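Quick question: what would this complex look like in 3D?
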Amino acid sequence: MIQFTNVTKRYPGGHQALNNVSFELKSGEMAFLTGHSGAGKSTLLKLITCIERPTTGQVMVNGKNLGKLGRRHVPAVRRQIGMIFQDHKLINERTVFDNVALPLVIAGLHNHPEIARRVRAALDKVGLLGKEKQYPVTLSSGEQQRVGIARAVVNKPALLLADEPTGNLDPDLAAEVMGLFGQFNQVGVTVLIVSHNVDLITRFRSRILHLEKGGLV
Amino acid sequence: MRIKNYFLNHLYAFFYSLGQISRAPLSSVMTVVVIGITLAFPAGLYAVLKNAQQLSAGWDEVAQISVFLKKDVGGQALDDLAKRLHDRPDIAKITTVPAAKALEEFRKLSGFDDALRALEENPLPSVLIIQPAAGYADPTAVEHLQVSLRKLPEADFVQLDLQWVQRLHAVLEIAKRGVEILAVLLGLAVLLIVGNTIRLGVQSNRDEIAITKLIGATDGFVRRPFLYAGIWYGLLGGIIAWGLVSLALLLLDEPVRKVSALYDSTFTLGMLDVWTTLLLLTSGTLLGLLGSWLAVGKHLRAVEPD
Ligand SMILES: Nc1ncnc2c1ncn2[C@@H]1O[C@H](COP(=O)(O)OP(=O)(O)OP(=O)(O)O)[C@@H](O)[C@H]1O
Ligand SMILES: [Mg+2]
């Protein structure tokens, strides 16, 4: 599903965020990505979603070489991925319902009852069913994070990327959300989660990728 | 299925753009009104011009010659002269306007009643209005008639109305060019107005656009609501322009009616016809679409997620 080959990412300022990273995540696999702050975890996820391009090396996602991908083909890649962002990235001018429905609308779904059914199912999974008419700013940070999770899973993507999805959640809720990712993985979704929560991670017997100053160790 | 989806995608963008517009009602209304005023200028001038052309086209066929007579010709002498001239084969009809009648009519219609009463003697001459016979209406024959009328001892001044009609035609032709140039310039102004509004729209929705792109929206998906917004601005602007021009024509109608009554004419101002209306609305809509197309292509590219 994901294959990095000798990937190096240098930002315009000259900072080297990733250094010769190689790994493979097979379809249906679940893995955790750990590392200190500034180790390059978010950068690695951004390479998978074409937000950033590798300086050298090759990033393959679902058989496509992202380094060679034209601008026009980027949206199709992103639509296959459910991405949960460290800073939520919710649209503040739109209700929780509209935020979660957006991936469906982008994918071309217009049947309103069907949209409503799927949005409610996703919100139900993260325990926010009653909040669909609210705006993101009226929610707590943890609730916003869960809206982001609902949006990422609403379209049943084949690949789920999560950047610190439990950062703002209390231990019970964090465990619940991690369990949710485990459930997705069990139905065949490939999952890559950035997390510092060693407690939770060790409960899963999944692979752990550890980044140290931009290099995998 | 694909076609249905395509249609629904557009329907979504159509209503979404309406939502966008209603979220910033003040600036949207201002844009629409400015576009309306800008479009109203060339449309109004065009309407006036078209009326003038219609009016002058009517004059073409009635090549009239007015013979202003010397002061001392009146009464019986006037009637004799008219009878004499009527025998000529190249004259179809003669209307005599005695000086007294001319003054009375002018007094009635102009409203200068008191001022005219103060005059001791009638300042107006008697006039013969001559209409050439059907076989003599071509320019050379009319010219010939005019020359021979000028030779009459009773004639003071002979005026062929056709001359100034022809000049008016030339002037109107120039005015038409002017309106066309103005229309092109103001069309460009509309493009800039719409472009600028769309640019502001893109800027104030930067986050939303970036996030939408981030979760896989195509350029087309992001662009579509802005294109529809441009269409809305242009169409609503066109409707406002139509309203402004119609209002102006309505307000001008009464005075024009009075003036044309002075000239014994039943001319009234024509309102904007169906074709002009359609032209106005279509060009407004297309300018709106083009303006947003140009702006959105340039500014959306700059909004990339990070
Ligand atoms: N757009 C950017 N331009 C320049 N440097 C950047 C940019 N984004 C990240 N960096 C740098 O790259 C390094 C890795 O950043 P990254 O966000 O991948 O870290 P991280 O592992 O996600 O850290 P954290 O756990 O704090 O989120 C950091 O030193 C950061 O300063
Ligand atoms: Mg990070």
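Answer marked as accepted. Chain B has a mean pLDDT of 84.
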